[in-house]
Amino acid sequence: MHTSGRAATPRVPLSSPRPVVVHTTQQAILSAAEALDGSGRHFQRDQWQRDSADANAGWGATCVLEGGRLLEKAAANTTVVRGTLSAARAQ
């Protein structure tokens, strides 16, 4: 972790797989928001995964904090999807 100013940012090597970067960054955001809120409340985490037989399978996490001291309602959600990007979608 790098601590510059108030928030800590994750130090993830650029060579890391993108899903690792996404997950690590989300966890850092959640931790920083909980600390900033100061109420002792934590994000409710709902992790999900698509069927691995699906060509566009993926995973994600929906995280919500409600009723905090500073944060009335906050969310930090992620989705990682694999698949082939068609030429038409790339434009």
TrEMBL record:
One of its GO terms (biological process) is protoporphyrinogen IX biosynthetic process. One of its GO terms (cellular component) is cytoplasm. It holds the Pfam family Coprogen_oxidas. SUPFAM superfamilies: Coproporphyrinogen III oxidase. It catalyses: coproporphyrinogen III + O2 + 2 H(+) = protoporphyrinogen IX + 2 CO2 + 2 H2O. GO terms for molecular function: coproporphyrinogen oxidase activity. PANTHER family: COPROPORPHYRINOGEN III OXIDASE, MITOCHONDRIAL, COPROPORPHYRINOGEN OXIDASE. This is Coproporphyrinogen III oxidase isoform CPX2. It comes from Haematococcus lacustris (Green alga). The lineage of its organism: Eukaryota, Viridiplantae, Chlorophyta, core chlorophytes, Chlorophyceae.
